[in-house]
């Protein structure tokens, strides 16, 4: 049985970022994922400049052979209302394709990769975690998304007791005819909030690729909400009439509503496995990257892999993202004061949709890039 300093389950942005940081510090790491890469990943796919800065990604180098759609405007509305379009005066975010972005991050990793390999068993013996009866390490890290098998090892694990966001999305390359019929612009993502503010839909064009989806914190009539939105957008000429009939579903936890433990003896959870998606927007990429770098710092500073030594991870996460118990008033379902007749008026306001909805809730411009030297 091969022995490593750490085994990371999940090779998405959180897993690859953490592996990269640990290997740069001389750690012997194994990263395992059930998929082969590049792989399709259901995700709207936008990243802020803060993410690219934290990852030290050269924008010109990245976009040479990959999609990197600059975003400088947003169209926002509530369903049934006319949109408000705001110009931000420059590039405030970027659109990526997760099949390209995730593969790019994983390609930077030099550690041993065990891809196309489902995790079939996790056991522990004499302080060592054993995966698939083939590899062992004193430290096991769950980076495998909402249904990560490592998350089952601590707390109650994934299950019906959790308040999840359910989403359905599709991303496809448009034909020339579809591209001509699509009025949505690449530099202007379109967001459309449900009347009860428990979710929102989007249309995001990235060159010839189009991403359409809807997510809600309760999955009640999710398909109906999505069909209504798609019908509205077709009627308005924003999207082509002949969409592919292959919307994919996925689930994740919002930070303020997740109750998963972040660590235990010899084990850590990062990214969506830990339930770290931003509560107001549901974005998971930046929390995944930042939690991975925070975890790397804690691991490298820790004298051992005990829960006592790893407790600092929970402290740093709370400092960066806030304490979950402190933030119940702000939710993907939006603040209580916004769930009033006032909401429809505010969603018609240029100031509110730009300064609050976009810049604060979606772009998190008030939060500086994470500065961790690993």
Written description of the protein model:
By secondary structure, the protein is an alpha/beta fold. It has a domain at 2-71 and 94-160 and 254-326: 3-Layer(bba) Sandwich (FAD/NAD(P)-binding domain). 28% of the residues lie in helices and 23% in strands. Strands 7-6-15-16-17-14-18 form a seven-stranded mixed β-sheet, with helices on both faces. Strands 9-3-2-13-20-19 form a six-stranded mixed β-sheet, with helices on one face. Strands 1-12-11-10 form a four-stranded mixed β-sheet, with no helix packed on it. Residues 327-333 have low confidence and may be disordered.
Report a brief summary of the structure.
The protein is of the alpha/beta class and 374 residues long. Helix content is 28%, strand content 23%.
Beta-strand segment tally:
20
| CATH level-four homologous superfamily name of the domain at 2-71 and 94-160 and 254-326 | FAD/NAD(P)-binding domain
Overall geometry comes to globular
In whole angstroms, how far apart are the ends? Answer: 29 Å
The assigned structural class equals alpha/beta
**Beta-strand residue fraction:** 15-25%
Write down the secondary-structure element order.
Answer: EEHEEHHEEEEHEEEEEEHEEEHEEEHHHH
Task: Describe this protein with a few key phrases.
alpha/beta; FAD/NAD(P)-binding domain; six-stranded mixed beta sheet; 10 helices
List the helices and strands and how they pair.
Blueprint: E1 2-3, E2 6-9, H1 13-24, E3 29-32, E4 46-47, H2 49-55, H3 59-62, E5 69-71, E6 73-78, E7 84-87, E8 93-95, H4 98-107, E9 112-114, E10 122-125, E11 128-131, E12 135-137, E13 139-142, E14 164-173, H5 176-181, E15 190-193, E16 199-206, E17 209-216, H6 222-235, E18 248-253, E19 263-264, E20 267-269, H7 285-301, H8 307-321, H9 342-346, H10 350-362
Parallel strand pairs: 1-12, 2-3, 2-13, 3-9, 6-15, 13-20
Antiparallel strand pairs: 4-8, 5-8, 6-7, 10-11, 11-12, 14-17, 14-18, 15-16, 16-17, 19-20
Helix pairs in contact: 1-4, 1-7, 2-7, 7-8
């Amino acid at each position: 049985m091969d022995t490593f300093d750490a085994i990371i389950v999940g090779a998405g942005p959180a897993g690859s970022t953490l592996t990269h940081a640990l290997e740069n510090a001389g750690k012997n790491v194994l990263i395992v994922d059930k998929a082969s890469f590049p792989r399709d990943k259901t995700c709207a796919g936008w990243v802020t400049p803060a993410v690219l800065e934290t990852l030290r990604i050269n924008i010109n180098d990245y976009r040479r052979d990959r999609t990197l759609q600059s975003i400088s405007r947003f169209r926002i509305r509530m369903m049934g209302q006319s949109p408000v379009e705001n110009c931000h005066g420059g590039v405030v975010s970027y659109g990526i394709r997760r099949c390209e972005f995730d593969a790019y991050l994983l390609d930077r990793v030099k550690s041993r990769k065990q891809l196309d390999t489902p995790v079939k068993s996790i056991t522990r013996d004499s302080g060592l975690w054993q995966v698939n009866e083939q590899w062992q390490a004193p430290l096991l890290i769950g980076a495998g998304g909402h249904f990560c098998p490592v998350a089952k090892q601590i707390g109650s694990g994934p299950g019906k007791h959790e308040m999840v966001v359910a989403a359905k999305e599709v991303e496809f390359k448009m034909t020339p005819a579809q591209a001509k019929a699509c009025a949505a612009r690449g530099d202007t993502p379109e967001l459309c909030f449900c009347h009860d503010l428990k979710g929102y839909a989007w249309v995001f064009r990235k060159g010839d690729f189009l991403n359409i989806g809807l997510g809600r914190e309760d999955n009640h009539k999710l398909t109906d909400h999505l069909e209504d939105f798609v019908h509205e957008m077709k009627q308005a000429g924003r999207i082509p009439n002949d969409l592919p009939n292959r919307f994919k579903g996925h689930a994740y936890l919002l930070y303020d509503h997740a109750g998963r433990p972040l660590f235990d003896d010899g084990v850590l959870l990062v990214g969506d496995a830990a339930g770290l998606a931003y509560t107001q927007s549901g974005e998971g990429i930046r929390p995944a990257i930042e939690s991975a770098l925070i975890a790397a710092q804690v691991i490298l500073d820790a004298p051992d892999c005990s829960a006592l030594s790893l407790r600092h991870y929970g402290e740093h996460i709370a400092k960066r993202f806030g304490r979950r118990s402190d933030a119940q008033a702000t939710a993907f379902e939006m603040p209580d004061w916004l769930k009033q007749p006032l909401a429809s008026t505010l969603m018609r306001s240029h100031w509110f949709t730009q300064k609050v909805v976009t810049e604060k809730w979606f772009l998190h411009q008030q939060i500086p890039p994470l500065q961790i030297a690993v």
